[in-house]
């Protein structure tokens, strides 16, 4: 795996730190979303990795923050978009082989 790892550390409600690899930032219908893989999930085989998706919003200080996606319909739209991206990547991989 030659991909660069972009580590992000998030702190949960109990103050526990968790490290994630930032896989991608995508824009869907004018909103940005971060696709992250927990450090414990990184195996070298992308198909085994379970990603988490957070919405990127701006707080009152102008800082970007990651928030949970509360709306099921919004979450489904983002997942569908990511599925399309993965499908396109697979098609490109098959075309170059």
Describe this structure in words.
The protein has 97 residues and is α+β, with helices and mostly antiparallel strands. The chain has one domain (7-96). 26% of the residues lie in helices and 37% in strands. The chain is built from one helix and five strands, in the order βββββα. It has one helix at 72-96, and strands at 7-11, 17-28, 31-38, 52-58, 64-67. Strands 1-2-3-4-5 form a five-stranded antiparallel β-sheet. Strand 1 (7-11) and strand 2 (17-28) form a beta hairpin. The longest helix is centred in the last third of the chain and has 25 residues, at 72-96.
Structural class: alpha+beta
Total count of helical runs of at least 4 residues: 1
Q: Indicate the percent of residues in helices.
A: 25-40%
What share of the residues does DSSP label as strand, in percent?
35-45%
Termini gap:
18 Å
Order of helices and strands: EEEEEH
Average pLDDT over all residues: 85
Number of strands: 5
What is the general shape?
A: globular
How big is the Rg?
Answer: 15 Å
Poorly predicted regions are none
How can the largest sheet be summarized? 5 strands, antiparallel
How many separate domains make up the residues? 1
For the biggest β-sheet, the strand order reads 1-2-3-4-5
Set down the secondary structure blueprint.
Blueprint: E1 7-11, E2 17-28, E3 31-38, E4 52-58, E5 64-67, H1 72-96
Antiparallel strand pairs: 1-2, 2-3, 3-4, 4-5
């Amino acid at each position: 795996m030659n991909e660069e790892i972009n580590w992000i550390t998030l702190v949960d409600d109990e103050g526990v730190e968790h490290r994630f690899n930032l896989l991608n930032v995508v824009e869907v219908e004018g909103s940005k979303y971060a696709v992250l893989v927990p450090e414990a999930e990184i195996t070298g085989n992308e198909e085994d990795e379970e990603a988490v998706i957070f919405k990127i919003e701006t707080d009152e200080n102008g800082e970007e923050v990651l928030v949970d996606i509360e709306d099921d319909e919004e979450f489904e739209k983002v997942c569908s978009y990511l599925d399309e991206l993965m499908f396109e990547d697979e098609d490109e991989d098959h075309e170059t082989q």
